[in-house]
Amino acid sequence: MIIGVLAEFAEFEREVIKEKTLAGIALAKVEGKFKGRKPGSKNIRKHHQYDSVMAHLESGKSVTEIHRLTGVSRVSIAKWREEL
């Protein structure tokens, strides 16, 4: 029962944090301080290690091996591998 009550409090706190965050973003937008993600920031080819990772992929190295060599996340490497 105590765990259930604590879980309810945690859920309530998450909702409060979410509301405060959204309110803060809305206020910042009104004041012209928040503009969201920069245009083109999701362009993966601009990643500073994209070319290196692609070269490793083309040479047949595994995702884990490339991760160890470059420090790029395994998820990013796996997504980039789909381009080949």
UniProtKB/TrEMBL annotation:
Q: Which residues form the Resolvase/invertase-type recombinase catalytic domain?
A: 1-32
Q: Any idea which GO molecular function terms this record carries?
A: DNA binding; DNA strand exchange activity
Question: Which Gene3D superfamilies does this one have?
Answer: Homeodomain-like, Resolvase, N-terminal catalytic domain
Which InterPro entries does this UniProt record tie to the protein?
A: Resolv_N, Resolvase-like_N_sf
Q: Which domain of life is it from?
A: Bacteria
**What's the name of the protein?**
Resolvase/invertase-type recombinase catalytic domain-containing protein
Organism (species): Persicobacter diffluens
Q: What lineage does UniProt assign to this protein's organism?
A: Bacteria, Pseudomonadati, Bacteroidota, Cytophagia, Cytophagales
